[in-house]
Amino acid sequence: MYVVVLITAANKKQARMIAGALVERKLVACVNVIDRVSSLFWWKKKVDKATEVLIVAKSTRGKLPRIIASVKSLHSYTVPEIIALPVVGGNRDYLDWIDESIR
What we know:
Blueprint: E1 2-9, H1 12-24, E2 30-43, E3 46-60, H2 64-74, E4 82-86, H3 92-101
Antiparallel strand pairs: 1-3, 1-4, 2-3
């Protein structure tokens, strides 16, 4: 099963470092780094806000445990967002490319 993994980072430098590590380790085939997302969230029993950078990574479910471990080891947040969404379909050529890229 293919997944899209959403990861937020504190800034562009951190996002690029995490994204680069995931690609170099062949845990993901591709990442998009989207700068300046506005986030609102509960933290320590109050609503907080931050401007963050969103990483959108494409991979497979089998790689997810290693993706999570890698991100947690590199991330500055105590509780980093690492959420995987299933891919229910797509361009077969692209999905095959994901498989080839993370072998």
